[in-house]
Amino acid sequence: MALSDYRILKQRKSSKKSKILAAGVYPISVEWNQDEKQSIIKFSDGGQAPGSCVHCINPPCLEYAKDEIELDTFKEFPADRAPEVCPTKAISWPQESDSPIIDSEVCISCGICVSRCPVAAIYLDPDKTTAILNDLPNRYFLLQNQEVSETTQKFLLEMFSQVSESGIFISEDDDILQRFFDKFKSVATEQKHSFQFPNHLVRNLMLEVGIKALMRRRGDTNLRMDIVFEQSGGRSGTCEVELGGEVLDAPRNLLDNVAVLVSRYKISKDSIIPLIVTLSLPNRRSEYWQVIKDIKQVLDLRINSLTIGMLVLLVWNRIEISLDSQEILYADSDMYTLRDKFERILGRELNITEGYPGFMESQK
Ligand code: SF4
Ligand code: SF4
Predict the structure, then answer these.
(1) Mind listing the domains of the chain with CATH numbers?
(2) By alpha-carbon position, which residue is closest to atom 2 of ligand 2?
């Protein structure tokens, strides 16, 4: 994030303790090592320490800045610009707490807040399938008994915005992904989560992997597409999010969306990227794959498919993607797998069993 993104959202507390960096040192690098779980920050004096919460005045782990959830092409889109970073509302900052807290019962370990913390104070625990926020002071992160000025904090965050970052939050395997899916399903079915949960989750995951996205406002019956997005290359996209059994309707709904983008937003059909995000890829007997192939053959429109697990893996691996190429994540009834294409994006082989339920390839 650029420093300008740390705008004043709202003061969480009128007075709270803050942290400053020890005098005379500055951070050199942030390293993520999944065996250690916590980040390792290397400092200019040769020492190192895990990241520790500095009690941001405008906490990027909690809310997006306004310009992060704004799209040039879709200024008139009836968007829900909910600023909350956590799609499950697991992270909050109660008045009585000096720092944000994470409810491990509700956290699905998507990694979004981890990725947004400028001082790498949040990390993922794959055994407990939750994010954990480290607020312990150490010899580099010094606790003050008062709030520091906004200028002092900006200076600290500016130093961190310039350090190199390496490593990944979690390295995947079948067990870790199974725990993620189990937690996801139990959290997603809880009634307390809103109608917007699937769209909110996918919008935030897309933002985190480098795709600027907006989600539809609840109750808008005029325009039904779930998400619109922009790519840096100037192309625009429309996305249907289907986490349940409605996935078979998604390719046809996308055709409606494309028609709307062409007729109402004057976007050229050839520059539109259609995308479907599902929890699992439909099985091979499903009509889904044939419809996608038909649409490609008849309309020359290539519908990309992505799963929630793939988006989360991108966040865990700290990888941004661009869907600018029409076929980056295209699969149809001739080729039911996205594994090769996804491994090219990751730059390595996945440590997940082939055929793992609907995650990367559809089942028989
Ligand atoms: S966890 Fe990170 S982003 Fe959130 S308040 Fe603490 S330092 Fe800021
Ligand atoms: S890891 Fe995801 S679900 Fe957990 S607190 Fe962070 S944003 Fe929320």
Answers:
(1) 3-67+88-167 (3.30.70.20), 194-346 (3.40.91.50)
(2) 110
